[in-house]
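Problem 12. The chain below contains 287 residues. Write out its predicted structure in token notation.
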Amino acid sequence: MHIQPLHDDFGVEVLDLDLRDVTAEAIYPELRSLFEAHSLLLFRDQSIDEVKHRALACLFGPLENLTAAAPDETPPRPMVSNLAPDGTLAGEADLQLLNLRSNFIWHTDSTFLATPSLSNILIAYRIPSAGGETELVSTRVGWRRMPEALRKRAYGRVFLHRYAHSRRQVDEALAEQEMFTKWPDSAWRSTWRNPVNGQESLYIAAHAYGVRGLAEEEGLRLLAELTDAVTGPEAIYAHAWRVGDVLIWDQRATLHRGRPWPYEEERTLASIVSSATDGDGLASVRP
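Solution.
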């Protein structure tokens, strides 16, 4: 399998591969090895429909379900888009666009759930003329090279997560929506150990609102220091999307954020998140 690096810290582009050919027996084992080692995989010029998107995501783990009415109901494929259901583009004050803007904060998906995510598979369908990049950093490399004193302050700590917290950083009305308040708070250790290679990564997100055992202000200060330590300009891989691009990243070992674009233009990506299982090292991050 031919690869080329995306960034000095992490990530590879996989060349000359049609993701429609991937099955559990063929190609996926090699892709999973690259996923464990590099945390971020890029595939260009793909033609992935919803059926193939779901099939690929299922190889990584159970599909995350944030909106289906019943646990066994097939969840809809989430679209990361400013295109409203009526075919118009969301305006600056619309909750749909405010929610997209909350993704401009460094985060890891689904830390607010009882079972966090392992992977995200994001596919580009409509791209604006400028902006709209997705930026990522490695929290594995960032954890390793952060100042030792800061790492010691964080190691073994338990971070508290709440979905509405990340939305409140953008708009109070957004944070009060039922889809963000219905989840009970969750708690995860500050690091996640990869069971394949033994490497630890800082496990943090914009959803983190506190640190167990610390006063509110002190906890928020520590969370901000840690995020700043791993998201410096030199650590960022900025992906400029092209139609047909597919990104797959390891939620245990990265942070990501979207970037603004001209909102009078459509930007539509499709995202399917797979949940982590015990084999992905969940025990290491449970309090």
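Discussion. The chain has a mean pLDDT of 95. Students who got a different answer should revisit the alignment rule from Section 12.3.
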